[in-house]
Amino acid sequence: MEFRPDLIIPELYQLLLIGALFIQGIADRPWMPRVGKWLSWCAGVGILISAGSLDLNGLIFVGSYRVDTLSQFFKFAVSFGFAVAVLNATRQPTLEKEKHCEYFMFMALSAWGLMILSSCVELISIYLALELASFSLFPLVPLRSGEKGAAEAAVKYVFFGAAATAIGLFGFSLILASQHTTYLIDFMQKPWAWSEAPMAVAGLTLFLCGMLFKLALFPFHFWAPDVYEGASNETVAYISTMPKLGAVVVLIRLSMLLKPGLEITTILALLAAVSITYGNLAALIQTDVKRLLGYSTIAHAGYVMVGLTAGTTEGVAAAAFYSFIYVIMNFACFWVICRIATDGRNLKLDDLNGLYKRAPGLALVLAVGAMALVGLPPTAGFMGKLFLLTAAWNHSYNWLVVIAAANIAISIYYYLNLVRHAYTKEAPESTPTAVPYPFFSLLWGGLLAALLILFGILPGLVFKALPPSL
User: Fold this and answer.
1) Cα separation of 303 and 322, whole Å?
2) Taking burial as the number of CB atoms within 10 A of a residue's CB, which of 13, 44, 285, 330 is the most buried?
3) How many CB atoms lie within 10 A of CB 193?
4) Cβ atoms of residues 373 and 363 within 8 Å
5) pLDDT number for residue 312
6) 423: number of Cβ within 10 Å
7) Mean pLDDT, the chain, as a whole number?
8) Nearest partner of 80 among 107, 46, 113, 114, judged by Cα
9) Residue percentage of the chain with pLDDT more than 90
10) Which range, of 109-118, 257-266, 268-277, averages the lowest pLDDT?
């Protein structure tokens, strides 16, 4: 099995960016270009490279690294999300100037880990890639000058992350002891029912804890609202979206084992139902916009699990589609938050009052993002939820579909509450009636909103990039 560098071009390019950031970080000179400026363009080139690699196929590194359409789709999603995150964080008011290179380097390392995770088909390599993607995020959380809550958020994030890692490793040991293999392809020939392999079922459940921690699925969600509130707006925009892609692609790889009726599948379905309900109910009473979106993340993790527990190719495809769309939806909302909070503060709902007068373009982007998160047509969020619910119907968990559909109605209140404050509430008299925002800020935010509409009308544009077998 020969090594083919042409199969890992996106990963090599991302590694090149990391090396460039490292060199600039240790040898920063006045004549060097500002990191945010050149990195934005280079991250955009990364999107093109990932798009050009969608059709690659191969198996390398002793069969532990599979390059296929599924992995390339998620690498494209990671490249897209990384580029948007870099653009969003280029002007970060709470980040000291001398720390810009290190900030973007750790962000690039995390994205690199997620790319590697997309192709890993062996448990040890999955674990190592997951830790690379996770540990790179830990230094980003406390990088918020003048905010004591950032340090508290960092401690919570590290503590819960370490606990999830330890649990996952223990589960890995049980799987290895029971099934005597770490390759996912071999798992298909192994029993995964409690009556036949109780140790393996227990081990897989514990191993999945690491993935569920990244998804912020109940009961591994406790870190999310506090970390979102304490970290900077730009950091939260990345943490709330990108790690979800890595977790979803691993769960998709493991979905071949999650047949309806198995004990582990039923456990995940129950957690999905609780996560959806708890996330939506908790978000109803939030006045801090980032905490609101933090509890929203918990609910959306449950929606993704609806497709994965269906045990069908349609459900898996719907989960992949929704995870990509969620990146765009969340980034659209955080794009507006970061543009409004010019001093880096946490926004309250009242800070959105009168936004349609101050910045009509940003108000429109927020409205489209909020409607997509709800699942209203003609946005991509509507199509995503439709695909998830229809794929899961009549596959042993109809009660989960009913709970998910009922919770969509609940979420309408707090998502459209963002729009209500932006369009129907008047700002205080001391607030400027119109605030000029840079053209490119409105351009990129408008592009995110346009993509949500485009993929809502033509979802096939995304599905064409997914494997035909899905």
Assistant:
1) 9
2) 330
3) 14
4) no
5) 78
6) 19
7) 83
8) 46
9) 14
10) 257-266
Q: Give the list of residues 6+ apart from residue 76 with CB closer than 8 angstroms, or none.
A: 10, 47, 50, 51, 53, 54, 465
Distance CA(95)–CA(104), nearest Å, equals 11
Write down the pTM of the prediction. Answer: 0.89
Structure token pair of residue 91: 């002007």
Any residues with CB less than 8 A from the CB of 57 and at least 6 apart, and which? 67, 68, 69
Question: Can you tell me the distance from the alpha carbon of 163 to that of 170, in angstroms, rounded to the nearest whole number?
Answer: 11
Distance CA 445, CA 465 (A): 24
> What are the structure tokens assigned to 370, written together?
């909020």
The model's pLDDT over 213-256, given as tens digits with 9 standing for 90+, comes to: 777 787 777 777 778 887 888 888 888 888 888 888 888 888 77
Give the DSSP H/E element, type plus range, for residue 259: none
Whole-angstrom distance, CA of residue 146 vs CA of residue 367: 31
Residue in the block written with tokens 């004549």: 31
Quick: pLDDT tens for 110-149. Answer: 999 999 999 888 888 888 898 888 888 888 888 776 667 7
CA dist., res. 70 & res. 321, Å (int): 11
Closest CA relative to residue 230, chosen from 122, 295, 150: 150
CA distance 271 to 217: 7
